[in-house]
């Protein structure tokens, strides 16, 4: 390699690494005045330079390439363009699926070492700090005005609580399964902070995900120790009990959940408490009409809202009465959303995504995919920037780190 090529390669490495570090550090915050996407744009410049500096030293990770190809096909299956404003908004939101996984598909050894050592640690440190800030903010609201509804108790106003708690659960998976900078003696404290934040955020599907993470971790651990299992579950039980007793909003959300589990037709004080069952009912009827091709992004949501406009049921969100016809809703389920937008062929894409994940038999990769899949059950995560950021970058990254670790 010539001196000029060596300098170019080092320059590309630093541009790529700094851009990627900026990006993962901002994921648990995502302030509008400091866009995380700018980091990926900088990283993209570094990656393009690395392609020209010394192509012979580049490595292709084929499992990650397969995942990336599936994400690209998922995006392209939403074409051709429709003259619907919502269509352009959705497709623009999903553009990262086309590009942001590339640095983990084709890379050199320097960036691979950096990714293995630093990127997960940067995300962990950022998530823990984000959770601490959130908890302090939550306590301040609890003291000043405890009547404020759970979804408005986060200082990160442009990052919905469902996605913030998803990020924290991803951080818990990394703490449990990925070598990190945190010593074992402090790991319990870090996990405690993240668990408390997930519970306080009151996204109920993420409560289920949290319990699932802990159970799967201990069942799959090679160093299975009864004392360690009991310690973690006692920690979780203490957190839940204290928050249930002392935080009215968490108490209310837990009671709401129990009401809905007892009966899907539960009506409380003459009002419905779960709008998803009405959305899913109408969504299934729409799917039955055009199951093969779907309706394309944007139009699928528009047709759903036309059906929901006829719904006269009263709903209660914890603060006020509302009607479905007064808002704008997507399918609140990524699988239903994708079927409605792209047709039955998307099923094969989702199945294809699982091939490198479960074929490698790596628990970090498997748990990460299952966490994202759980989130897709109650949220259309590819309709929101926060969800697209996670899927477009973290899926290829985790597949790369998992497959490389297995080889080494």
Automatic annotation (TrEMBL):
GO cellular component: a single term: membrane
Keywords, sorted A to Z: Ligase, Membrane, Transmembrane, Transmembrane helix
Residues that span the membrane, as ranges: 12-30, 36-53, 60-78, 90-107, 119-141, 156-176, 188-217, 229-247, 346-374, 386-404
UniProt cross-references to Pfam families, sorted A to Z: Wzy_C
Domain O-antigen ligase-related: 190-351
Entry's localization field: Membrane
Main location: membrane
Membrane topology listed for this record: Multi-pass membrane protein
Domain of life where this protein originates: Bacteria
Example GO molecular function: ligase activity
Name this protein carries in UniProt: O-antigen ligase
Protein's organism: Schleiferia thermophila
